[in-house]
Amino acid sequence: MASEVVCGLVFRLLLPVCLAAACLFRYNALSFVYLIYLLLIPLFAEPTSTTMRGHTGRLLQSLCFTSLSFLLLHIIYQITVNSLLARNSISDFNCSTWEKSIRQIGFESRKITSMLVLVAQKSGAEACTG
C-alpha cells in the first residue's frame, strides 16, 4: 500500500514538477519534447505492477530513453566543441549562425565547469524519471 502511494506521488507530483521545470527554465526544442511528456502524463494510469507492463511502463521507458539520449548528445556536443576550440580549429564560434541555430535546438557551447553543472542537472532530471 505504501509503495503504491509513493509511486503515485512520484508519478503525479514529482515527475510533472521536474518536467515543468525543464520546460520553463530553458526554451528550446529539447524542452518541447519534455512538454509533450508533461502533457501525456495525465492520460496514463498510475504505475502499479500491472500498468508498468502496459502503456505506463512504456511511457516511463521512453522518457528515460529520451532523457539519456539528450544527456549523451549534450556530452558529445560539448566534447566536440571544446576540443575544436582548444585546437583553434573553429574561430568566432560564439557569433556564427551555426552556433545560433544549435542554441535554438538546445545545445550551447559552455566552459568545462558550466558543462559539469549541466550534466549534473540532466542527471538529476534522469534520477527523477528513472
What is the H/E string? Answer: HHHHH
Instruction: Provide the structure class.
Output: mainly alpha
Query: What is the radius of gyration computed over CA atoms, rounded to a whole number of angstroms?
Result: 17 Å
Low-confidence stretches: none
- Estimate the global geometry from the Cα principal axes: elongated
Would you count the extended β strands for me?
0
What does the average pLDDT come to? 79
The total count of helices amounts to: 5
Strand content: under 5%
| First-last Cα distance | 21 Å
What can you see in these coordinates?
With 130 residues, the chain is mainly alpha-helical. It contains five helices and no strands. The mean pLDDT is 79.
Label this structure with key terms.
elongated; mainly alpha; 130 residues
